[in-house]
Design brief:
The structure is a single chain. The protein is α+β, with helices and mostly antiparallel strands and about 110 residues long. The protein has a single domain, classed as Winged helix-like DNA-binding domain superfamily/Winged helix DNA-binding domain (Arc Repressor Mutant, subunit A), CATH 1.10.10.10. It is about 70% helix and about 15% strand. The chain has helices spanning about 5-10, 15-25, 35-40, 45-55, 75-100, 100-110, and strands at about 30, 60-65, 70-75. The chain has a three-stranded antiparallel β-sheet with strand order 1-3-2. Strand 2 and strand 3 form a beta hairpin. Helix 2 (about 15-25) crosses helix 3, helix 2 (about 15-25) crosses helix 5 (about 75-100) and helix 3 (about 35-40) crosses helix 4. The N and C termini lie far apart (about 45 Å). About 15% of the residues are buried.
């Protein structure tokens, strides 16, 4: 596995980067890094570190207007965030299904 692929796999299989990515997706535009750090429940500096890795991978872009700096998803970032959200929904659905009793499972199959 190449270094870049390893970095991507490690980033997206962690809670904080995933929350930051989904926070960007739900904002539907550019957003302040401080807002993302609150949503992901991590420090501002850790959020910036994650966002810098995302930028290096081409997933986010920084938009600076004067002293104001916002972050937005790139087209590739939108695709990845959408797929991540779909994976999470699928895992939640699978978890719900596995919690059903055998009787309930039979009813849903009919």
């Amino acid at each position: 596995m190449t270094e870049e692929k390893r970095v991507m796999v490690e980033m997206f299989l962690r809670e904080k980067p995933a929350k930051i990515l989904l926070g960007l997706k739900t904002s539907k535009g550019s957003v302040y890094a401080t807002l993302l750090s609150k949503e992901a429940n991590c420090t501002y500096s850790h959020t910036i570190k994650i966002l810098n890795v995302f930028r290096d991978l081409g997933i986010v872009k920084f938009e600076k207007t004067g002293r104001i700096k916002k972050v937005a998803l790139t087209d590739d970032g939108w695709d990845i965030a959408h797929n991540l959200e779909a994976m999470i929904k699928k895992f939640m659905l699978m978890e719900e299904t596995s919690k059903k009793t055998p009787k309930e499972k039979k009813k849903t199959k009919k």
